[in-house]
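Justification of computing resources. Each target in the renewal requires a structure prediction run like the one illustrated here; the chain below, 421 residues long, is used simply to show the kind of job we budget for.
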Amino acid sequence: MSDVILKVENLSKQYRLGTIGTGTISHDLNRWWAGIRGKEDPYLKIGETNDRSKKGESEYVWALKDINFEVKRGEILGIIGKNGAGKSTLLKILSKVTGPTTGVIKYNGRIASLLEVGTGFHPEMTGKENVFLNGAILGMTKKEISSKLDEIIEFSGCERFIDTPVKRYSSGMKVRLAFAVAAFLEPDILVVDEVLAVGDTEFQKKAIGKMQDISNTEGRTVLFVSHDMAAISSLCSICILLEYGYVKEVGETKQVINNYLTCKTNTLLSNVFFKDDLYLKSFKLLSKQRERIDFVLFDSTIIFEVEIESKREIVNDFILEFKVKSDSERVLSTFSTYLNKYQFKTNGGYSRKLSCVVDSVSLIPGKYSIDIIIIKYMEGDKLAKLSDVYNFEVVRSNNFIFSNKIKSKFHGDFIMKYKWS
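Resulting structure tokens:
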């Protein structure tokens, strides 16, 4: 237990939708009357899961519910999950920005947090003045801050503008300076939200290196929230997966990320009518291990699997095509049985499964969708086109040397493997 620096027990956070504060006077009176009688808050017995895709019936939602975990000294804990899963809420509670509705948090050291761009910075004060202000907020003396000032400024890369008011800084410069302050003023626990994504590639690399250093050499603990699976994978020794405010999984980072990337968010298609008594029974996007996925690792192997049924025997051969489109609706690639010289036939009353294996996904990280088209082979008659039947996202990986340097479509839609000699 002496190695445990942070322990969270039965932590929950409830919000009332559409209002600020606890709610109405009647609700507050009900809470007060329950407290007088020694009974539990009646509004803790109600509330729904924080699922944004459903309308819901209760005006109370649980942003977090029954969270339990512990972090040992020197560990780097990754926290992942979809938008709205409760990651930022958890960090705000741990950083004492807001309080929990129920539960206990036990600390064994000083905590510093970097949750939003420029948090704790005064816009009218210079960068240097904000270093002292931020350091004082973190509990440091002026002497301690002064001893680290040169290192903070050098790491941030803002030396030329350090005497300029922060209101003239870009969001990236604010993040650089804020991270430098939090990292160099030696907190026992450093809490970092997704804000590092605002910085450029060079700074992200420096920040990740610094977090590794303070964990490995100085024995301090880091809590890191990010949607960048490559950064989480390379940095974190243990990982928590949040879903709808609950802890879905805690464990070894690689396994937790794999389970997160194979989560099922697309609606399964079933019995979609094409034409000539043809039906689309199902479409799946699978990993190499044939698990359903919605997130695709750059340079990984994926499988498109479709099941089609004909209610009567059809003599003609068919052309089946999958078209991969960008978020701007531009067709980037076509996978066709015709181009691959694969004969696709149907028999009456039977369903047919086809799999298309893509050995290496070279799409730039981003969001994509898939169209399905079926054409009569000899007649060229398009029997059906289903648009946007499936949505997926390509994310960065550590398998390919270019993947960590890719930030946008600047380099094109695809990155092919190549080398110079």
